[in-house]
Amino acid sequence: MIQTNVFDYIRVLDKAADASWLRHQAISNNIANVDTPGYKRQDVEFESILKKELGMSRYETMDEKVAGLRPERLNGRPYTDYANYSYRIDGNNVDIDNENVMLAQNQIKYQGLITSINQEYMNLQTAMQ
Q1: Greatest CA span in the chain, whole angstroms?
Q2: Does residue 36 sit in helix, strand or coil?
Q3: Local confidence pLDDT in tens for the 129 residues of the chain
Q4: Of the candidates 55, 53, 31, 54, which has an alpha carbon nearest to the alpha carbon of residue 42?
Q5: What SS3 class is residue 3?
Q6: Measured CA distances, 11 to 77, 92, 113 (Å)
Q7: Distance of alpha carbon 91 from alpha carbon 118, whole angstroms
Q8: 44, β-bridge pairs
């Protein structure tokens, strides 16, 4: 039997879903400002934070790593992407085609995370029956 607390995984999935939601807002804002002179695209850093936190313990199982994570460290951080780069003379660096692809990718990721969270709760419900 796996010795883990299912809520450890749910907390990580929840934090990932929160970061994905923040990324959705950032991408939507980028799309809305595609014609705003001087606007710089925004993104959210999360995956590298999670990788760093999981990689701190090399010789532990994934269950041990997830159990040892501190949820307060797993917050998505908005940042300005390519602040010194622009596609146009007006200083804007938003590529609408790229933003639409990133929006679709993020929507699929978010749906997958929500499905995973729901599956964890269904597993709990099945175990309790």
Answers
A1: 63
A2: coil
A3: 344 577 888 899 999 999 999 999 999 999 999 999 999 999 999 999 998 888 866 778 877 888 888 888 899 999 998 778 887 889 899 999 999 999 999 999 999 999 999 998 898 888 888
A4: 31
A5: coil
A6: 17, 37, 11
A7: 43
A8: 78
